[in-house]
Amino acid sequence: MTQEEVFKKLISHCKEYGFVFPSSEIYDGLSAVYDYGQMGVELKQNIKKYWWDSMILLNENIVGIDSAIFMHPTIWKASGHVDAFNDPLIDNKDSKKRYRADVLIEEQMAKYDDKINKEVEKAAKRFGESFDEAMFRQTNPRVLETAAKRDELHERFAKAMNDNDLAELRQIIVDYEITCPISGTRNWTDVRQFNLMFSTEMGSTADGAMKVYLRPETAQGIFVNYINVQKTGRMRIPFGIAQIGKAFRNEIVARQFIFRMREFEQMEMQFFVRPGEELKWFEKWKETRLKWHKALGLGDQKYRYHDHDKLAHYANAATDIEFEMPFGFKEVEGIHSRTNFDLGSHEKYSGKKLQYFDPELNESYVPYVIETSIGVDRMFLSVMSAAYCEEKLDNGESRVVLKLPAALAPIKLAVFPLVKKDGLPDKAREIMNDLKFDFKCMYDEKDSIGKRYRRQDAIGTPFCITVDHDTLVDNKVTVRYRDTMLQERIAISDIKNLISEQVSFKSLLKKIAQD
Ligand code: ATP
Predict the structure, then answer these.
(1) Residue range 311-320: average pLDDT?
(2) What's the rounded Cα separation, in Å, for the pair 408 and 46?
(3) Whose CA is closest to atom 12 on ligand 1?
(4) Measured in angstroms, how far is the CA atom of residue 467 from the centroid of ligand 1?
(5) CA of 438 to the centre of ligand 1 (A)
(6) Is 331 in the pocket of ligand 1 (CB under 6 A)?
(7) Contacts of residue 120, Cβ cutoff 8 Å, sequence gap at least 6
(8) Which long-range contacts (CB under 8 A, 24 or more apart) does 449-453 make?
(9) 201: which strand partners?
(10) What's the CA-to-centroid distance between 261 and ligand 1, angstroms?
(11) CB neighbours of 432 closer than 8 A, spacing ≥ 6?
(12) Which residues are bridge partners to 272 per DSSP?
């Protein structure tokens, strides 16, 4: 199966099992807006809890807030979003499809990388054990030729982006013969800038309504509250403020399911540090955030850093944590050293002092900021794509299983009576009534046990227990493990301990806390 097919299957699986639905579906949907269903909402809550606890529980010096979506419009002027939160767009005149010019060029670079990797793979197969990959990359003429093209493109692209040179972006697309994936032609319009913020009006027009924006990031809510939190929480630098909330961007090309949405959720933490110490903290957060991802056990090889060539107007260092999605390595989280740009700019626009008095240095300054910013929905997609698995079984059948980390699974435990009679349902209910205070459980008595297992596999439930006739005598049940499908008999009194340990966030958080 190609990766594209896997991705299509994942999307339909998300719908079929109540994880993600297209928004307004009975009205034929709304482009790039999605709703989370009964399973999706649980998984999403668990992802958010994992992030929140890793920030708030593990760090004495990080506190949370929940700021409003609507904010004073001048905030977006100060932050640079009104003037510079743009994407370069280009249209293909034949297909009438719109693209991000930067994304078209990045895809072309990825093609060169793919070509190189294929050469390397082929050679590795040919030479077997004796293959020296580094040497091959440095000397093979075809690899060198492709790498040179890639580097040349990269250099031109980075310069055009940094200079905001739209004509040059178009010229690159022309020179590299980049075609529209739909029409296959190179009939392009000019490149134009497009602002990604949604706006609306607040107040009645009679009073002179004010144009307000739907926030395109949660970060600004933290910056404008920084002094409130610092003073009321008696916070001392270094300290952080965390927030989870909705953000809105009028994305030009909203494709790839929940990867790029127009309404999405962010988990952001702004860490306030002394000027001059920001790069040290940048490295620290880069490392900590990767640990957070890896602790989930989705596969260490699925992550990589991507350092930015084009720094945003506010940053002096930036990296992405990329995850291997079914459509390649893509950004899931950004870690940015935002300098004192935001606070400095808010001081200027608001006329309020946003300085911190550092008692150790005996001086005041505007703190520097390290930001960690991750999209809940992209994280959701990475977890789902790593977890989705189609397996052939020994008996010739196959199963679809979501190998979700137990702590994130929507349902932790399913309880089945073997048959719908002889008092087994009552016993099963009794067990569930006891455990429901600790975990999200699901009761199921319909169909064969095999079918019930399959239904739970498909939503990633890590444990199923079956109550049979012997249970009434020996107070034991059969527990079945999702990934191995192994079964064992355990005492009812042991169920809670067995499951608690595996589904708790504690073991994940401990992995991050280790230095
Ligand atoms: P991209 O380059 O993919 O547009 P970005 O660099 O603009 O992303 P940031 O502004 O750094 O993204 O936002 C931080 C995080 O918010 C991203 O890493 C991503 O997980 C999430 N995010 C940003 N835009 C979207 C979107 N349209 N839909 C879903 N998640 C998003």
Answers:
(1) 83
(2) 5
(3) 334
(4) 47
(5) 35
(6) yes
(7) 133, 136, 137, 143
(8) 449/416, 449/418, 452/414, 452/416, 453/480, 453/485
(9) 211
(10) 9
(11) 415, 441, 443
(12) 239, 369
Q: What is the pLDDT of residue 207?
A: 66
| CA 388 to ligand 1 centroid distance, Å | 23
Give CA–CA dist 170/186, Å, rounded.
11
Residue with tokens 């001048």: 74
In tens, the pLDDT along 267-315 reads 999 999 999 999 999 999 999 999 999 999 999 999 999 988 767 777 8
Residue 478 structure tokens: 């059969």
The CATH number of 86-194, from 3.40.50.2000, 3.30.40.230, 2.60.120.10, 3.30.479.30, is: 3.30.40.230
What's the topology of domain 1-85+196-392? Answer: BirA Bifunctional Protein; domain 2 (3.30.930)
Question: Do 1-85+196-392 and 400-511 show the same overall fold?
Answer: no
Q: Is the CB of 442 under 6 A from ligand 1?
A: no
Give the domain 400-511 fold: Rossmann fold (3.40.50)
Tell me the β-bridge partners of 356. Answer: 365
Q: Which of the listed residues 264, 306, 327 should we mutate to test ligand 1's pocket, taking the one with most ligand atoms within 8 A of CB?
A: 264
- Reported as a single tens digit per residue, the pLDDT across 321-365 is 999 999 889 999 999 999 999 999 999 999 999 999 999 999 999
Which residue is associated with the tokens 């010229």? Answer: 171
Q: Where are the domains of the chain?
A: 1-85+196-392, 86-194, 400-511
The answer to whether 450 touches 416, Cβ cutoff 8 Å, is: no
Q: If phi over 0 gives left and psi between -120 and 50 gives alpha, with beta otherwise, what is residue 285?
A: alpha
Handedness of CA 171, 177, 181, 184 (dihedral sign): positive
What is the C-alpha separation between 297 and 343, in angstroms, rounded? 37
Torsion of the alpha carbons at 260, 264, 265 and 266, rounded to the nearest 10: 50
Q: How far apart are CA 322 and CA 329, in angstroms?
A: 6
